[in-house]
Write a sequence for this structure.
């Protein structure tokens, strides 16, 4: 039992030393932060309102023709990336679109004729 008490006393002394070291490190960090804050200049009216450099030149943009040429070059570059349909794929998909448009046209014509006949029936009474 004597060794247990010695171990407890030794560990408690180490714990106190560690706590003191941590407190000292924390104090040092706080002191360093305070020193850094003192080093940074306080913002004043002079610092906040610095005069902007006056430039006689407007925003340097190329003239309209150079911008148009640049735009067309960009369009050409993007169109080269496009995956174009083959002739057969184009004809098939055009046929599908024309068929769907025809079906909906027929459907709208039938509904319109039915509603027109119904309206004529109520008007002629």
């Amino acid at each position: 039992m004597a060794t247990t008490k010695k171990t407890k006393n030794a560990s408690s002394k180490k714990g106190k030393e560690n706590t003191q070291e941590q407190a000292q490190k924390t104090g040092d960090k706080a002191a360093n932060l305070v020193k850094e804050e003192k080093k940074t200049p306080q913002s004043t009216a002079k610092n906040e309102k610095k005069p902007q450099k006056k430039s006689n030149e407007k925003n340097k943009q190329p003239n309209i023709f150079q911008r148009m040429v640049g735009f067309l070059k960009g369009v050409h570059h993007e169109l080269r990336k496009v995956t174009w349909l083959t002739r057969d794929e184009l004809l098939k998909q055009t046929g599908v679109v024309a068929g769907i448009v025809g079906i909906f046209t027929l459907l709208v014509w039938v509904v319109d004729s039915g509603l027109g006949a119904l309206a004529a029936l109520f008007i002629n009474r």
Remarks:
- The CA atoms of residues 65 and 71 lie 10 Å apart.
- The chain is about 80% helix and 0% strand.
